Amino acid sequence: xxxKELKQVFDEEQIRTRVADLAAEISALYDxxxxxxxxxxxxxxxxxxxxxxxxxxxxxxxxxxxxxSYGIAATSNRxxxxxxxxxxxxxxxxxxxVEDIIDTGHTMDFLLRQFAARxxxxxxxxxxxxxxxxxxxxxxxxxxxxxLPGGFIVGYxxxxxxxxxELPAIFEVIPEY
Length: 177
Ligand code: PRP
Hints:
The structure is a single chain. This protein has a single domain, classed as Rossmann fold. It is 21% helix and 38% strand. The protein has 3 helices and 9 strands; from the N terminus they run βαβαβββαββββ. The protein has helices spanning 12-29, 45-52, 106-116, and strands at residues 3-10, 34-41, 59-71, 78-84, 94-102, 122-130, 143-147, 153-154, 170-175. The strands form 2 sheets. The protein has a 6-stranded mixed beta sheet with strand order 4-3-2-5-6-7, sandwiched between helices. The N and C termini lie close together (9 Å). Residues 40-43, 69, 99-107, 159 line the site of 1-O-pyrophosphono-5-O-phosphono-alpha-D-ribofuranose.
């Protein structure tokens, strides 16, 4: 795909405001509790670091997973596996998974099922961008930054062929036809 332009969808100020609101909600929910915040690499790194640095109240431990997806994209025949698992035990802990985007839902369906089997006290999901309309398997986020119907987006952790993750805002990729 040749890119014609990157069209801004959410600017830095919108993201900052939304992240602050989510962090306040999360802080209130887990106030005084021990919380394991799990970043889903690579895309989740920027949202994760912005959210956790604003948490006030929970006693936070951080950990990271990286998942790989095999099979044909946009079909249900996808196999997800861990490239890197968390290192902390999740048993008896409140766990918050922090992800950049939910699209078909396959990735989060896999991860939440895996984590649910490890005896966490609670398991919740925070996502920056939720593309509900593209779901192939049901997955619901507990904390959502923005809902978007479609469009290929990059920036704020999200990539196109590993580019644009470092951009501080979120852009839609407009292809050249
Ligand atoms: C992206 C994104 C989610 C997943 C969402 O990850 O970060 O993990 O796809 O898609 P789904 O809901 O259709 O499963 P990707 O595999 O591109 O890895 P990355 O985070 O390293 O870019």
